């Protein structure tokens, strides 16, 4: 069921441009503020604060997921899983990349800078060489944050896993509490470690395997898990595509877009294989 749910969610995400507007997290802002107001010590629990914040949401969700299993041939369970997965996925990365490329080709520098900021998650540089580098790094990083990490936790834990990852990322970027931000940063790094390394391996399979292997072996050791995840993705992604010279920046971004798409196909093939093995067993 997970495979069908993922494919259907990706098709809906690709077909309906209004999905971003439907992903409204205002309820979570209100909930977080209420928790900090009524339980003022929640943001003073260090690394555990994010767990205390999310558990009251995730436990009822898990119970509902369990209760729906087997009802009406799992139709309710399927609809529930599909809705949560769609909600947990990030913005359409493929669309954002194409919009940035079209803006650059049309000479619309201001619009291109806006799209670059969307891809990088921060204000983008207005100098094109630096902006292009930021976009390349952003595409690789956002491919995990928006898509692959969500799919990984959805396959592993179902809808609860997908929403767990998304709410952790949302807290990291939008929480008013510095303690919660630091706790979410640590948790996000832990949750991203496995999908990041699987994605890096997918980049190798979908691109230049030998070059990625050499880059992986020669990458500097990072003491911080967040930095380790980041450099793993960047090194693997850039190592998987051929070198591009000056003036070929957009070709490089197109190559990264193709790399992400091929990696997604690999993931779907593996999930299909695991599903088939599960049925046979």
What does this entry look like structurally?
The two termini are 15 Å apart. The chain has helices at residues 2-15, 19-22, 26-38, 49-68, 75-88, 93-105, 109-120, 128-157, 159-174, 178-206, 209-218, 225-240, 249-280. It has one domain (50-280). It is an all-alpha fold and 281 residues long. 79% of the residues lie in helices and 0% in strands. The longest helix is centred in the C-terminal third of the chain and has 32 residues, at 249-280.
- Total strand segments: 0
Q: Count of DSSP helices?
A: 13
Q: Residue-averaged pLDDT, rounded?
A: 90
In whole angstroms, how far apart are the ends? 15 Å
How much of the polypeptide forms β-strand, as a percent range? under 5%
- Rounded radius of gyration (Å): 20 Å
Which characteristics define this entry?
281 residues, mainly alpha, 13 helices, 79% helix, globular
Brief rundown of the structure:
This protein has helices spanning 2-15, 19-22, 26-38, 49-68, 75-88, 93-105, 109-120, 128-157, 159-174, 178-206, 209-218, 225-240, 249-280. With 281 residues, it is mainly α.
Write the layout of secondary structure elements.
Layout lengths: L1 H14 L3 H4 L3 H13 L10 H20 L6 H14 L4 H13 L3 H12 L7 H30 L1 H16 L3 H29 L2 H10 L6 H16 L8 H32 L1
Helix pairs in contact: 1-5, 4-9, 5-9, 6-7, 6-13, 7-8, 8-9, 8-10, 8-12, 8-13, 9-10, 10-11, 10-12, 10-13, 11-12
